[in-house]
Amino acid sequence: MARTERVVVIGGGIGGLTAAAALHRRGCEVTVLERAPSLEPVGAAISLAPNSLRALDVIGLGDEIRDLAAWQGDGGLRAPSGRWLARTDAAAVAARFGGPLVLLHRATLVNSLAAGLPKGAIRTGVSATVADPGDARRPARVTTPDGELAADLVVAADGIRSAVRGALFPDHPGTVYSGFTTWRVVVPLPGVEFASHETWGRGRVWGSHPLKDGRVYAYAAAVAPAGQRAPDERAELLRRYGDWHDPIPAILAATRPEDVLRHDVHHIAEPLPAYHRGRVALVGDAAHAMPPLLGQGGNQAIEDAVVLAHRMDDLPAYTADRLPRATAVARKSARVARVNLMTGRARIAVRDTAMAALSKAAPGLLVRGFDGIADWRPPQPPYASVLSHPGTRRERQ
Fold first, then answer.
1. How many other CB atoms are there within 10 angstroms of residue 83's CB atom?
2. What is the pLDDT of residues 348-387, one digit of tens each?
3. Most CB atoms within 10 A, among 106, 283, 372, 376?
4. Exposed, middle or buried: residue 243 (CB in 10 Å: 0-12, 13-18, 19+)?
């Protein structure tokens, strides 16, 4: 009888839980160690593109998450005055990439992933470190306050400040400040209807997205010194964005100071030499933290997880599959952030004029910006086939 492989996942975020679910489905004995007292996710909402939804199909969650999606709709890019610079079309996204772009609360995704794991597989309030990454002849060893665990595979999903990454690659410079800070809110806004949008200003970005339950997910980003904080972050948002187009003032009016989350953005500018060492594999932000303005951080973590489950017996192949792709996406995310957060007035005027002109001349310009990203497919079936038209039920290949 074949021996059951033991897997320890360090970190109970989206990447770690997806890896745990994928490895559990493969027949592994999985233990998830999360240092926080609960799995309550930090953050507000997450946008899932067709690439990560196909990855979730592999673990049987794709359709469930599509059906739970809070929002699937049209939108576009605007100027602070409200002028539309470019439009996006949900049907065009589905037709081009074989599925929708959906938005849901992070807690919804976390709960769905956790529900697929055996009782007792997730241990919260437990810090963990890798004492020995292991090799082909010996298991990895993970140290916890309750003792040591041996593992055939350790999944390091411990986030942007990954201690495991630092232990595996001590000579790597780690993360750097991206030059901007972000705010996120989820607030009720009954009776206010608007199209999902992102708005580009001078060194500032705002995004508003209606959720199915009457709430709104909004985010903002602005060029700012690292570590800068305001006594009242809601007042800071009002100062920076209060005179922008509707529905931004209404969203801010509905926001309480305690609703606002603020985080400086750091990313890995110099790619790691590998996403594994010994029997330890890095996923998500621990491997390739990137600026969020392309909306691919969580999506890439989900991709990592299902590819790792496919390649768990050959970690060099996991690195070969994931490092070039995630590096390319991270670099594009950094380029997008530089364009979105321009500060020079003349360059902004050229940017906006060009965006509006190109959008009229070539409709779907924003959608095509996801070529090579949203069309990714996992290395193993099942996954959703290309939709013949919007609204068609997904068929399995």
1. 12
2. 999 999 989 988 877 677 788 889 999 999 997 764 433 3
3. 283
4. exposed
